[in-house]
Design brief:
Helix content is about 40%, strand content about 15%. The chain contains 11 helices and 8 strands. The relative contact order is 0.09.
C-alpha cells in the first residue's frame, strides 16, 4: 500500500465504490490502513431502496461522522445518491388489479404507516447528506407514490426523477392520485410551501441538470423554473403529448440560464412532431434544442429501472449519462 499515495488509493476506491454499495464496507474490513484511507470516501456513492436500508445507512453514517470527529480526521461525505422505491425491490407491496375492498383498506393502512416512516427517515437522511450531495436519482412507480418530504439541496448539481416529483413539492394540480394516502396531513413534514415561498427559498438553488422521465410532467414543469432557478440543462424522456405542449412556458421561452433542452417523445404521431418543431422554433436563441427519436423500449417503465442507474454511475466517472444527442452515445 505504501507504493501509492493516499490520494491515488482514495481515487481507486472511489471508482470501485460506484458500482457496488457493499464495496466500501468490504474494503474497510480488509485492514486498518484501508479503513483509514476509505473513511472520507466510504459513503461517496450510495444506493438505497427500502426503509430498512435507509435506517441502517443513517446509523452507519452518523457513527462514521462521530468516529471522524473523535479521531480528528476528515469526515465522510455523500456526493451521489440513488433512491429506488420500485415494486419488487422496496419494502412496500402493490395491489393487484382485481383486489377486494378489504384488501384496499388493509393496503391503505399499511401504506399510511409506510409513508409516515419513510417521511421521517427521508427527512433525517436528507438532513445528513444534502450539504454535500452533488447528484441524485430517484426511481419510483406510480403504484408506490411517495409522501412529501421537506428538504433543501444547497449544492445539488444534477437530478433525475422517474415518474413523479411529489416528494419535493406539492402544487394544486399535483394532487393525490386515487385512493393513495400519501397526502394524509403530510405526516411529519408539515404543509408544503406555496409557489411564492418556493421562489424565495428554492429547493434546488444550484441545480444545473434535470432529467424528467416517464411522468405527467406537464403539471409541474413551470414550477421547476422556480425551484431550480439556475437550471442549464433540461431533458424530458418518454414525454407525452401534453408534456411536449407544456414546454411552451417561461422555462423555455425566456430562460435566464437554460442552454440545452433534450426531448425524447413517447410516441411519434404527426401532431406531436409538429409540437416538437414548434418548440424548436420558439426556443430562445441561446437554447440548443435536441429532439431524440422514439425508442419502443422506452414505452416500458421497467426499461428505465436499469437505464437510469447506469446513467447515474456514468456521470460519477466522467461519462455523459443522459446528456447525449444520439442513442449511440448512451452508457
Amino acid at each position: 500500500m505504501d507504493s501509492l499515495s493516499t490520494e491515488v488509493w482514495q481515487y481507486i476506491f472511489e471508482l470501485a465504490c460506484v458500482e457496488s454499495v457493499r464495496t466500501g464496507s468490504a474494503l474497510s474490513r480488509t485492514s486498518k490502513a484501508f479503513r483509514q484511507v476509505l473513511a472520507p470516501i466510504r459513503f461517496h456513492s450510495i444506493r438505497l431502496n427500502s426503509l430498512e436500508q435507509i435506517e441502517k445507512f443513517d446509523t452507519a453514517y452518523e457513527a462514521a461522522i462521530a468516529e471522524a470527529i473523535a479521531s480528528k480526521s476528515d469526515p465522510p461525505h455523500v456526493r451521489h445518491l440513488l433512491l429506488a422505491f420500485l415494486p419488487g425491490q422496496t419494502d412496500m407491496f402493490v395491489l393487484g388489479p382485481s383486489c377486494h375492498f378489504r384488501d384496499l383498506c388493509s393496503w391503505q393502512a399499511v401504506k399510511r404507516r409506510w409513508n409516515e416512516r419513510l417521511a421521517s427517515l427521508m427527512t433525517h437522511l436528507f438532513d445528513l447528506v444534502s450539504p454535500d450531495l452533488v447528484t441524485m436519482t430517484v426511481l419510483q412507480n406510480d403504484q408506490i407514490a411517495l409522501p412529501y418530504v421537506r428538504c433543501s439541496f444547497p449544492v445539488l448539481r444534477e437530478l433525475t426523477l422517474l415518474c413523479d416529483d411529489r416528494m419535493f413539492f406539492r402544487m394544486p394540480l399535483n394532487s393525490e392520485p386515487g385512493m393513495e394516502p400519501s397526502d394524509k396531513e403530510f405526516y411529519s413534514a408539515g404543509t408544503p410551501p406555496d409557489k411564492e415561498v418556493l421562489a424565495a427559498h428554492p429547493i434546488f438553488p444550484a441545480l444545473e441538470r434535470l432529467h424528467l422521465v416517464d411522468g405527467k410532467w406537464e403539471a409541474t414543469l413551470p414550477i421547476w423554473a422556480v425551484v431550480a432557478p439556475r437550471l442549464t440543462h433540461l431533458r424530458v424522456s418518454s414525454a407525452s403529448h401534453k408534456c411536449c405542449g407544456a414546454l411552451f412556458n417561461p422555462l423555455l421561452a425566456t430562460p435566464p440560464t437554460l442552454s440545452t433542452l433534450i426531448v425524447r417523445p413517447r410516441s411519434q404521431d404527426q401532431e406531436k412532431q409538429q409540437v416538437l418543431r414548434r418548440i424548436a422554433n420558439a426556443a430562445h436563441p441561446g437554447v440548443d434544442v435536441v429532439i431524440l427519436p422514439v425508442l419502443e423500449r422506452d414505452l416500458q417503465q421497467e426499461y428505465w429501472y436499469d437505464r437510469l442507474p447506469r446513467e447515474w454511475s456514468s456521470r460519477q466517472t466522467g461519462g455523459k449519462g443522459a446528456w447525449v444527442t444520439t442513442e449511440a452515445d448512451r452508457p
